[in-house]
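Review form for a predicted model. The reviewer records the input and the model, then writes brief findings.
Reviewer: anonymous (R2)
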Amino acid sequence: MRLDKYLKVSRLIKRRTVANEACDAGKVLVNDKAARASYDVKVGDVISITLGARELKARVTAVQETVAKNDAAMLYELLP
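Model under review:
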């Protein structure tokens, strides 16, 4: 699954266009490397997002095309 779509489905970022713009601006890292929106997300990848003063680091635990809002948090594990 594309990185921008994963960020939207997992609700780490609310809109896919915002996720796409964040990737283009270099604010999204996968395994400590800048990633494009078209990056193919795999289980075990570590995603780091910097939006403003907010920094978020999460490990991918599952990849699904669609998921219920209440189950979105099961797609990733937050890291300190």
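Findings: The chain is about 20% helix and 25% strand.
Further findings: Residues 1 and 41 are 6 Å apart (CA to CA).
Recommendation: see findings above.
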